[in-house]
Design goal:
Chain lengths: 391, 185
């Protein structure tokens, strides 16, 4: 799952557990950028945001430069952050239902107030904000992923099982006008990350999200790692500043990435990503710079995730906005990139859309399921099925 | 280590939110359980959540509901260690310690993870004031599964047993844990 349950600490506090991050030019209002953060995987209908957590989007301008044989992203120092916080819920006079209020602080310091689960969202000075329960837009054939890891060969079926079918998440949607937000502050390429950070005097980063499935699919398997075969690395990884990795553990991340990326490359029994003379996988440094890249000058595209990275690796100009739309089939895109580098057919996990595709109207995410199934039961059933496949 | 002047500098989630989210989890599982859609592991999760709700709110009805679900779970899945582990927790909640230890032994015979069982046994002996026995189980749990939960309980258990809480888990595995549990019965 994209970032759902990405480590013991995330699992311990669902309200701070980032499920996904989406960045895309508004399909409804040209010249606007949409930022979506989903948290609280498998949220029940009455789920609430934490009042002890700031839910943040951080954006920095990036440029493409050439280091050695390959292009790399160079991240600028200017930062634009949207920070959403929530209050403890209250019962308005005469009502039994709890109501939660929130605020969104923009890069220019304006504070927009809103109410959770207000279908219309809030609009103020060109900014639109929505926060509330929605149908989870992510989709993945988890049994196929598990069977692939176990069998050490691609094990996706023509028709996969979307583990997140009918599940809900809490979502934050911010739509901002590009010109007003960035001014003359660089671009058109921006690096974007999502974070959950404790409020209060001691800010502690609980989760960070750059690229989908980097933690759960790419970093999580331990068995190939020649250095830390028993280390649950995701909690360490989550606490890092995505724009400033601390030196302490970067060697551990690099070793894990080199080992696991080589595993994925070998799933089709051929090598599309030969390592360099030091054993480093060609994608390792690119993925260590863990942020999503979006071109705010290009129009909305439906399946553009990793397109800017692929163009960078090939040394050609990207064609799309990159980023990631709500309907983007990133599992197919990721496996195709890792396994055959785009040199072979597109690898499919057999799941091509969410329970219901996202709309092209604000707030873009679909209304929640009032009676969602229990995710753990579904995971258990599908895992048992995957074990049967893997035998 | 983070230096804090006092706990107020750490932000924590409002109790109202925590309880609403806990209740939402319970209600979601209850509706699935009523429809017969839950596997034993999810039924055990529901039992644990009800016990947690009971601890937080002091509501006996939650404990009683958990106990009833655990009895039914053992009846429905007598070969599943998770069922006995869940029932052990409900029995310990009602201070039926001998019955709880018997369930833990049953769970062990059915293949339950030893470290988890030793942590449960330690909690029971701690509740009985038998701190040396609890310490032996804590040591077993911490040595065989040295994670945050098992290690965090180690200093407190040492302090209760009148030992220095600072000593790390480094001595050889205790050998009398299971024997102590049988002696108690």
């Amino acid at each position: 799952m994209a970032d759902h349950f990405s480590g013991p600490r995330a699992i311990a506090d669902p309200a701070a557990d980032i499920a996904d991050l989406y960045i895309f030019p508004s399909p409804e209002r040209p010249g606007h950028l949409v930022l979506v953060l989903t948290v609280f995987p498998a949220a029940a209908p009455s789920a609430l945001f934490s009042d002890a957590v700031a839910y943040r989007f951080r954006l920095r301008p990036v440029t493409v430069t050439t280091a050695g044989a390959r292009g790399v992203f160079e991240v600028g120092q200017t930062e634009y952050a949207f920070s959403c916080t929530f209050a403890a819920p209250v019962k308005p006079d005469g009502s039994e239902a709890l109501v939660q209020a929130g605020t969104c602080t923009t890069p220019t310091g304006e504070v927009i107030s809103f109410r959770v689960n207000d279908e219309r969202g809030t609009e103020s000075k060109g900014l639109r904000v929505f926060a509330g329960l929605r149908l989870d837009p992510f989709f993945i054939d988890l049994p196929g992923v598990l069977a692939t890891n176990k069998l050490r060969r691609l094990a996706f079926k023509a028709k996969g099982d979307n583990i997140l079918e009918d599940q809900n998440v809490l979502s934050i949607v911010v739509e901002a006008e590009v010109a007003a937000m960035f001014g003359a502050g660089g671009g058109p390429l921006f690096a974007v990350v999502g974070e959950t950070v404790t409020t209060g005097k001691v800010p502690i980063r609980l989760e960070r999200f750059g690229r989908p499935e980097l933690k759960n699919v790419v970093l999580s398997p331990k068995e190939f790692d020649p250095v830390n075969r028993d280390l649950e690395i995701r909690d360490l990884y989550n606490q890092e500043d995505p724009f400033h990795l601390a030196r302490d553990y970067v060697g551990a991340y690099r070793a894990r990435l080199n080992a696991n990326l080589a595993f994925f490359d070998g799933l089709d029994d051929k090598t599309d990503w030969p390592p360099d003379e030091h054993g480093n996988h060609p994608l390792t440094e690119l993925l260590l710079a863990d942020f999503m890249v979006v071109d705010v000058s290009k129009p909305y595209a439906e399946d553009s995730c990793y397109e800017i990275e692929r163009a960078l690796l090939k040394g050609i100009a990207p064609e799309t906005c990159g980023g990631r739309s709500l309907n983007d089939d990133i599992v197919d895109s990721l496996y195709t990139l890792l396994v055959n580098a785009g040199n072979g057919p597109r690898i499919r996990d057999g799941v091509d859309q969410a329970t219901q595709p996202a709309s092209r109207s604000f707030p873009y995410l679909v209304r929640p399921n009032p009676n969602p199934p229990d995710l753990k039961a579904r995971v258990a059933a599908l895992s048992a099925s995957a074990k049967g496949v893997a035998r | 280590m983070i230096g804090l002047a006092n706990d107020a500098e750490l932000a924590t989630t409002s109790g109202v939110i925590a309880l609403v989210n806990l209740r939402a989890q319970i209600d979601g599982l209850e509706s699935q359980a009523a429809a017969g859609r839950l596997a034993p592991a999810q039924r055990a999760s529901l039992i644990d959540l009800l016990i947690l709700g009971g601890h937080v709110l002091g509501r006996i009805a939650d404990y009683e509901r958990a106990a009833a679900l655990a009895e039914q779970l053992v009846h429905d899945a007598p070969a599943d260690d998770i069922a006995f582990l869940a029932r052990a927790r409900t029995r310990a909640t009602f201070h039926r310690f001998a019955a709880a230890l018997a369930d833990l032994d049953a769970a062990e015979r059915l293949g339950s993870d030893r470290a988890g069982l030793d942590a449960e046994r330690a909690a029971i002996f701690q509740a009985l004031g038998r701190y040396d026995d609890a310490l032996a189980f804590r040591r077993n749990a911490a040595e065989s599964r040295p994670d945050f939960a098992t290690l965090a309980r180690w200093p407190g258990s040492r302090r209760n047993a009148g030992r220095s809480p600072r000593q790390s888990v480094c001595s050889p595995r205790g050998s009398g844990a299971t024997r102590m549990s049988r002696r108690f019965r």
